[in-house]
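step=encode ok
step=design start
structure_in=
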């Protein structure tokens, strides 16, 4: 492609003539004029020699075509795009703001497909022209996020943040928050590995010198205690309100039965007792009668 006749760009072209399918736009140095299909128009009619702003892309046959719908994502700009389709072994198709979904190739995604974006996940990306001359989506790199990121201050400590995962490694996941902060989630601070584009909420556990944050997806102690208390209570329900465990049970027995530490078990049990739901006696824990 020469001049500004390049897919993935926004340009202004002059209307050449009408056809049964739409209007042809003068392409300058191109051998053939560029079709603006009726489906790609934002108004019903155009005039000959009128100049219109269009976005250029390729149709299924690889021919350069135009749309009057102007996307926020081009080969010169980044933006957030929603995933529309996932094709195993191929990649994911995303909506950049026009009718045609664009491919984010598997070559730009992790080898592990379990952490690929899923439908309705959102990725920060741009467009590039591949070796074959076709448009494709490219994920934003670290430097691209630095261009739009804000620097976090100490007041953010222990606050909840929500954001999208933009990179994932065995050692951890990288997040860009809705408030514009760059963060890292160490693998020890998550129960499972989030996927690229997934929206997650966690708490800030550290603010680094460079203004980035460390985030934990694990619940706070009092939140975990609520989950642990529910787990203990549900187990007791399966045993008619009695279990052979109490706050002096062996740590290994507690871990084997409930998958939690003795400290977490005692906190959760204390919560249930404080709420008047259970009591302990001779190495056992029982539901209160009114329960």
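sequence_out=
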């Amino acid at each position: 492609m020469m001049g500004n006749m390049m897919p993935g760009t926004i340009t202004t072209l002059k209307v050449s003539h009408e056809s049964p399918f739409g209007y042809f736009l003068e392409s300058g140095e191109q051998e053939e004029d560029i079709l603006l299909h009726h489906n790609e128009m934002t108004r019903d009619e155009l005039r000959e020699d009128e100049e219109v702003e269009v976005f250029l892309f390729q149709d299924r046959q690889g021919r350069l075509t135009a749309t009057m719908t102007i996307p926020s994502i081009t080969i010169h700009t980044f933006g957030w795009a929603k995933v529309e389709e996932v094709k195993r072994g191929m990649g994911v198709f995303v909506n950049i703001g026009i009718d045609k979904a664009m491919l984010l190739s598997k070559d730009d995604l992790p080898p592990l497909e379990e952490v690929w974006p899923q439908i309705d996940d959102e990725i920060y990306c741009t467009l590039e022209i591949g070796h074959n001359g076709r448009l494709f989506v490219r994920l934003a790199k670290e430097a691209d996020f630095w261009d739009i990121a804000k620097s976090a201050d100490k007041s953010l400590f222990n606050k909840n943040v929500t954001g999208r995962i933009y990179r994932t490694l065995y050692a951890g996941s990288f997040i860009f928050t809705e408030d514009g902060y760059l963060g890292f989630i160490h693998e020890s601070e998550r129960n499972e590995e989030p996927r690229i584009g997934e929206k997650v909420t966690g708490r800030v556990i550290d603010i680094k010198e460079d203004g980035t944050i460390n985030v934990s997806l694990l619940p706070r102690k009092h939140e975990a205690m609520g989950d642990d208390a529910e787990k203990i209570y549900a187990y007791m329900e399966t045993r008619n309100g009695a279990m052979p465990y109490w706050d002096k049970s062996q740590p290994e027995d507690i871990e084997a039965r409930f998958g939690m530490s003795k400290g977490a078990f005692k906190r959760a049990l204390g919560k249930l007792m404080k709420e008047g739901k259970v009591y302990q006696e001779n190495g056992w824990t029982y539901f209160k009668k009114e329960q």
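step=design ok
step=annotate ok -> The chain has a mean pLDDT of 91.
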